[in-house]
């Protein structure tokens, strides 16, 4: 079985879409962009924000950095807790903990926000370490976040470790660090996206994810 598991936060542990997409819509308004298509806003859940602003709305790097500032104006006061824990997630974490698996959060969200969310929902005690992006956006790439999480958690290269996430960025970032990934289908990524990225296993429920980790 795997001895350690790294977990994405948005779309894997919590259904964070409402708070994130409302924050994005608020930030785009500052640039005179009114976005009413929810599917377009949903693309921002999971990937690094700067990359998404540049990719989907053709903002320059400097504009994207300013968009993140606007995003946080809403997110820090309202969006953070427009969020809920997915059904079965706490049971999954308890099962893994009781089975001897060390759990770590590796998120592209800044650590301080991730910690507040975990504390708000009573999940913090399931994790030995929380690793996230830096507030200055110098560490947002998922591969870099995962490498940082492995280092801070003291997970040795030979220790059997797996990533759990819902988007291709989780799978590709894990690959860069030599890790397989459980792709969760209850999040924001599709079966096609996760399969194309090379997920080792697709879990329809948190229980299936826990079972795979404990039995492989």
Describe this structure in words.
The protein starts with a strand and ends with a helix. Helices cover 46% and strands 16% of the residues. Helix 9 links the parallel strand 7 and strand 8. The radius of gyration is 16 Å and the shape is globular. The model has no long low-confidence stretch (mean pLDDT 95). It folds into 2 domains: 145 residues, HAD superfamily/HAD-like (Rossmann fold, 3-Layer(aba) Sandwich); 65 residues, Orthogonal Bundle (DNA polymerase, domain 1), CATH 1.10.150.240. The strands form 2 sheets. It has a 6-stranded parallel sheet with strand order 5-4-1-6-7-8, sandwiched between helices. A two-stranded antiparallel ribbon has the order 2-3. Helix 3 crosses helix 4. It has 216 residues and is of the alpha/beta class.
Task: Please give the alpha-carbon distance between the first and last residues.
Answer: 5 Å
The side-by-side strand order for the widest beta sheet comes to 5-4-1-6-7-8
Biggest β-sheet strands, sense, barrel: 6 strands, parallel
Which sequence of SSEs, written as H and E, runs from N to C? EEHHHHEHEHEHEHEHEH
Percent range for β-strand residues: 15-25%
Question: How many structurally independent domains?
Answer: 2
What is the count of β-strands? 8
Poorly predicted sequence stretches spanning 5 or more consecutive residues:
none
Q: Please state the oligomeric state of the protein chains shown.
A: single chain
Kindly state the percentage of residues in helix. 40-55%
Within CATH, the superfamily of the largest domain carries the name HAD superfamily/HAD-like
**CATH class descriptor of the largest domain:** Alpha Beta
């Amino acid at each position: 079985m795997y001895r350690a598991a790294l977990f994405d936060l948005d779309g894997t542990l919590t259904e964070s879409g409402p708070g994130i997409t409302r924050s994005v819509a608020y930030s785009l308004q500052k640039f005179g962009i009114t976005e009413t298509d929810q599917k377009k806003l949903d693309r921002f859940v999971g990937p690094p924000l700067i990359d998404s602003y540049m990719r989907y709305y053709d903002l320059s790097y400097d504009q994207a950095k300013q968009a993140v500032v606007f995003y946080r104006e809403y997110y820090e006061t309202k969006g953070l807790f427009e969020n809920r824990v997915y059904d079965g997630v706490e049971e999954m974490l308890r099962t893994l903990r009781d089975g001897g698996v060390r759990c770590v959060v590796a998120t592209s969200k800044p650590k301080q926000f991730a910690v507040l969310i975990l504390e708000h929902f009573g999940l913090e005690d399931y994790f030995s370490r929380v690793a996230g992006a830096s507030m200055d956006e110098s560490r947002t790439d998922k591969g870099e976040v995962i490498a940082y999480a492995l280092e801070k958690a003291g997970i040795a290269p030979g220790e059997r470790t797996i990533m759990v996430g819902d988007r291709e960025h989780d799978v590709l970032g894990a690959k860069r660090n030599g890790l397989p990934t459980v792709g969760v289908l209850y999040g924001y990524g599709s079966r096609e996206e996760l399969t194309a990225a090379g997920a080792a296993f697709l879990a329809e429920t948190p229980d299936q994810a826990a079972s795979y980790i404990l039995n492989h």
